[in-house]
Specification:
The structure holds two protein chains of two kinds. Chain A is mostly beta strands. Chain A is built from one helix and 16 strands. Chain B has helices spanning 11-23, 40-44, 63-73, 89-97, 107-114, 116-125, 141-151, 174-192, 249-265, 297-304, 308-316, 396-409, 419-426, 429-432, 440-443, 445-448, 455-501, and strands spanning 4-7, 27-32, 47-50, 77-79, 101-102, 155-159, 169-171, 197-201, 207-215, 221-233, 236-242, 270-278, 284-290, 333-340, 342-343, 349-350, 353-354, 357-359, 366-370, 377-378, 385-393, 411-413. In chain B, α4 (89-97) packs antiparallel against α5 and α7 packs across α8 (174-192). Classes of the chains: A mainly beta, B alpha+beta. Chains A and B meet through β1, β2, β3, β4 and β5 of A and β16 and α17 of B.
Chain lengths: 169, 502
């Protein structure tokens, strides 16, 4: 069994060579690892390698193949790249900047203000929507000169993370 | 005497106050908004009452609903915590009218200190140094220019009703004065509905140092030394410590006396904080008074050995202070880090969400004031503060080393936090040497926003964990499919059997 894994800007191929209980033998690219791997708590892995103790925490991302990985020193975004992912990546490159015209919020919040209306021409840097979460307001601005195509929320609405609030073109 | 206390707050501070109440044998009453039904303070309290919908304005800031809850529960006192209604003069007054003890100062003290221009005037009269500047509201543009010339540049324009950096402008020279005067006024109008502004001399490389005071009804006032709060982002404190690395015994004594005089000037009662701005040359000026318990109060408690909430309750009961100024001393060194649900790499954008896993640091010299537990969803309606981590050491280096250790142990998954950012601060030479002012984060920007490397082997381990997790996830799905196959065979068998039986 082998998969390519993308960790931020680095991609490596991991192959499982042998597995018996906690004992795992695998190869990361050309480097072989003889490890003791155990999930100690939900999403938390303890890995022993050459007497070194590593703790790695995983949070599943938007799909089951995406993870946010926390090591003891830093946090990464990781993705499992299998045949399906590769196919999707190739297909997405074909379509033009998919999603770039959708304005969504990375965190849940409340719509404070929508200073634009449908059909309006906006210039790069102009504020399209203001979202408030935890007493802080964030302004979402147009990345380039655009036309507001559709507004999917109202002032006072609550939005979830990654919910599309507005479409521009 | 107070028997039952309603805590008009949420989050870590509600729990912190309830802890002291419990030690004093007092019954605790929690209040919560509809978004906070699962919040820890509701579970910790002896009684809990819903006070309205999620937005603060309709719940934690709703005076009528809180008074109702107090009456329903028979609470004889209300502790406001910090934030929300803690510095609301009308609330203090209302409690008094309803015959409920407000654990805090009188409406008069709150109102005097709440308006910055009135506070400046009162302090000047009491002989306390304030930052050179105007003591009146400035409306006329010519007058603004004239005064600016007298004070000298650089200077600050500030909103009288201000706070949180709104309506505040740094003016470097004469040409900037009028445009900035106008924007500060309109910003103040938008933010506070009041466009009064005043002008102050700008202190280069300022330190933010505050003094904790306690005042009883009998008129005794003591100070519990200083807290250094210069490490700030967006005008909000991130790390506090005591004693301040900048302080000398003489300066401490002098500033402490002024802090006491400031409290006396407004007939203060309860726990309060006098904030000073201090220059590198150790010139100090009164900045403002916070008429409540501060977020950073635990470091004072740790070093002085006093439970400030218990003192607040005793004072509210009308008891005289038992602590004597000459008997107080600072034992060792204490540091507090504020853990926020926010992303330091995205301009500290708040990150509400579900906490999937949490490991809290423990061990010698560590105090943890928090309220978040596994499976708790941090709501988007309130402050992003998750917890406060407080360490103590015999010396400053020991307290720093302990904080570094505690931050290393502290793990929260599911939401992004500033834990790693705080860890990086612990390694900055300016911080280690205690040579920093309010420009610290800006000055050390490069260092603070570059993540620590975890090395190739550590990266490999991160990938391996994903790999193993993904393999197991796929395997879990596959046996289910095959077991469906089995069950249909059993079904067939069952059907055949019943047919045969017929």
């Amino acid at each position: 069994m082998a998969y390519e894994i993308k960790l931020e800007h680095r991609t490596a191929r991991i192959e499982l060579l042998n597995r018996a209980g906690n004992k795992v033998l695998l190869a990361v690219d050309d480097l072989k690892y003889d490890l003791d791997v155990v999930m100690v708590e939900k999403g938390v892995y303890s890995i022993l390698y050459n007497g070194q103790s590593y703790n790695v925490e995983l949070i599943e991302g938007e799909s089951r193949k995406e993870y946010i990985v926390n090591t003891m020193t830093r946090s990464f975004v990781a993705e499992i790249i299998d045949a399906e992912t590769k196919y999707l990546h190739n297909r997405l490159q074909g379509t033009e900047h998919k999603g770039e015209n959708d304005i969504s919020s990375p965190m849940p919040g409340k719509i404070v203000k929508i200073p634009v209306s449908v059909g309006e021409t906006v210039t790069a840097g102009q504020t399209l929507i203001v979202v408030e979460a935890m007493k802080m307001q964030s302004e979402f601005k147009a990345s380039a000169d655009r036309i507001v195509k559709e507004i999917l929320v109202n002032e006072g609405d609550t939005v979830n993370a990654h919910q599309i609030m507005m479409k521009v073109e | 005497m107070i028997r039952k206390v309603l805590i008009a707050n949420r989050g870590e501070i509600a729990i912190r106050v309830m802890r002291s109440c419990r030690e004093l044998g007092l019954v605790t009453v929690g209040v919560y908004s509809e978004a906070d039904r699962k919040s820890m303070h509701v579970r910790y309290a002896d009684e809990a009452y819903c006070i309205g919908p999620a937005p603060s304005r309709e719940s934690y800031l709703n005076i009528d609903n809180i008074i109702d809850a107090a009456k329903k529960s028979g609470a004889d006192a209300i502790h406001p915590g910090y934030g929300f209604l803690s510095e609301n003069a009308a609330f203090s007054d209302r409690c008094k009218q309803e015959g409920i003890i407000f654990i805090g100062p009188s409406a008069h003290s709150i109102a005097t200190m709440g308006d910055k221009i009135t506070a400046r005037l009162t302090m000047t009269k009491a002989g306390i140094p304030v930052v050179p500047g105007t003591t009146e509201k400035i409306t006329d543009e010519n007058m603004a220019l004239e005064i600016a010339g007298m004070i000298g540049y650089p200077l600050m324009i500030k909103a009288s009703a201000g706070g949180g950096g709104k309506g505040m402008r740094l003016v470097r020279d004469h040409n900037e004065m009028l445009p900035f005067f106008r924007t500060a006024k309109s910003e103040a109008m938008n933010a506070f509905g009041d466009d009064s502004v005043y002008i102050e001399k700008y202190i280069e490389s300022p330190h933010h140092i505050e003094f904790q005071i306690l005042a009883d009804r009998q008129g005794h006032v003591i100070h519990l030394f200083e807290r250094e709060c210069s490490i700030q982002r967006r005008h909000q404190k991130v790390i506090e410590e005591t004693p301040s690395p900048l302080m000398t015994p003489e300066l401490r004594d002098e500033m402490g006396k002024f802090a006491i005089a400031a409290a006396k000037a407004v007939n203060y009662e309860g726990a309060g904080t006098i904030e000073f701005i201090v220059s590198d040359a150790l010139e100090y000026y009164f900045l403002e008074m916070n008429t409540r318990l501060q977020v950073e109060h635990p470091i004072t408690e740790r070093v002085v050995g006093v439970d400030l909430v218990k003192e607040q309750i005793n004072i509210a009961n009308g008891l005289p202070l038992t602590l004597k100024q000459e008997e107080l001393r600072q034992d060792g060194h204490s540091i507090q880090c504020r853990i926020y649900a926010e992303d330091p790499d995205q301009n500290f954008m708040p990150q509400p969400g579900l906490v999937t896993h949490i490991t809290v640091p423990l061990g010698l010299g560590v105090r943890y004031d928090g309220y978040v537990y596994e499976g708790y969803e941090i709501p988007m309606h309130y402050d992003p503060l998750i917890s406060k981590l407080i360490t103590w050491g015999k010396t400053r280096p020991e307290a720093i080393a302990r904080m570094r250790r505690a931050l290393y142990e502290y793990k929260i998954t599911g939401v992004k936090t500033n834990i790693k950012f705080l860890e990086r601060i612990m390694d900055v030479p300016d911080f280690i040497d205690g040579k920093y002012n309010t420009h610290f984060i800006e000055k050390n920007n490069d260092r603070l926003f570059t993540p620590k490397s975890c090395g190739t082997e550590c990266e490999d381990m991160a990938m391996i964990a994903c790999f193993i997790d993904y393999l197991d996830k796929i395997e879990k799905v596959q046996p289910q499919k095959s077991s469906e196959g089995f069950s249909s065979t059993w079904k067939d068998f069952g059907r055949k059997k019943s047919v045969l039986r017929l």
